[in-house]
C-alpha cells in the first residue's frame, strides 16, 4: 500500500508545471492515448455486440430455437410428441412444419426455393414471419386453397405481387404411361414477408401444412416440430434434456448447431477487432514509460534531496508509480466519459451526423442492416477499464525502479 507522503508527492508531481515542456506534452499524449483507446474499444465492441444481436434476432426470427424429429428425419406421430413436450416448463411454443426444396415458376422466371409448410396459428408462436409481412397476412394461408407467401427478394426475382399465380415444381415425379412427369401445382401469392436476411428473403416460401403434405406426398408425416425456448442461450442444455425425455428414437437439434460457423465467425471478428484497438492502449502505455523516464531525468536533484532526508528507494519507486497510475486513471475515466455516452446514444447520434453532412453510412439498398446498432455490455466496459489500468500500472514499474536506483551523491555532484 502507498503511504500518505508517497501519495502526496506523486500527486504533486502530476500537477506540477515542469521545466521541460516536452515532458508535459508526452504526459498529455499518454492521457489522450489511453482515453482514445478506451473510448474506441467501448464504442466498437458495443457496435459489434449490436450487430451480433441484430443478426441473431433476424436469423432466429425464421429459425426455431430447437427442432424435434425422429431418426428418419421426419415425424409421424407429432401430436403425441407435442403432448409429451407440453409438460416441459422451458418450452414456450411448438409448431409442426414440413420443409422441402422446390422450384417456383412465373412465366419465364424460375427460381429455386425452400418451401415450408406451416400451421399459421402455431407458426406465430415460434417465428416472426407474421410480424414481418410486407403485404398480406400469414392467416390467409388456408388448407386446400393453395396460397403461398414469398420472401421479398424471391418475389422480386419472380416478378410477382399479391394475387399473382406461381407454379410450384417439386422434386418428386408422377409416373404415367408416357414416363415420369414433374409434379406441378399452381399457387396464389397471398403475401410477402421481409425479415432482412438474404438467406430467408431470397429463398423461402411458406404454404399451409396440409397443402405441403399433398404437394410433397408426406401423407400423415411432417418434417418435425419447431420449438421456441424461454432462453435461446440455454438451447444446447434444453435440447439435451429433451433428448433424454423423448428417448433415443428422436433427434433434437438446436440453433447453435445449424448456425455455429456464422456465429463463430462473428466472435472471431470481434476478438480480432478487440486486439487491433487494444494496441492503441498499449501504445499509450509505452508513452507513459517515456513520460516517466523523462520525468525521472528531470527530477534527479529532487530525488536526491528526498533520499538525503530519509526516503527509501521503495518510497521513491512508489512516488513515480503513483504518478504513472494517475495518468492511466485519468485516461480511463475520460475514455469511459466519452465511450459510454456515445455507445448508449449511437443510434441517435449517427442519424444526426448523416443528416448534418448529407451522407448515408449504411445505404438500405446495399446493406440489410442500414442502421448502426449498439449494445453496451457492462462486462466489456469493466474488462476494458481493468486492462487499461493494468497496462498503465505495469508501464510505471521500470521508470519507478530506475528512479529508486539514483544515488544522491551522483545526482547532486554537478548542482
Structure overview:
The protein has 415 residues and is of the alpha+beta class. It has two domains: 4-57 and 262-411, no CATH class; 64-255, no CATH class. It is 53% helix and 20% strand. The radius of gyration is 33 Å and the shape is elongated.
- Give start-end ranges of low-pLDDT stretches: none
Radius of gyration, CA atoms, in whole angstroms: 33 Å
**Helix and strand run:** HHEHEEHEEHEEHEHEHEHHHHHHHH
Helix content, binned percent: 40-55%
Neighbour order of strands in the largest sheet: 2-3-8-5-7-6
Oligomer: single chain
Q: Note the overall shape.
A: elongated
Distance between the termini: 33 Å
Q: What percent strand?
A: 15-25%
Topology:
Layout: H1 4-15, H2 21-62, E1 66-70, H3 78-85, E2 91-106, E3 109-118, H4 120-123, E4 133-135, E5 147-151, H5 152-158, E6 165-176, E7 179-193, H6 198-201, E8 204-208, H7 209-215, E9 224-229, H8 235-246, E10 250-254, H9 255-258, H10 260-298, H11 300-308, H12 313-344, H13 346-357, H14 378-395, H15 397-404, H16 408-411
Parallel strand pairs: 3-8, 5-7
Antiparallel strand pairs: 1-9, 1-10, 2-3, 2-6, 2-9, 4-7, 5-8, 6-7
Helix pairs in contact: 1-12, 2-10, 2-12, 2-14, 10-12, 10-14, 10-15, 12-14, 12-15
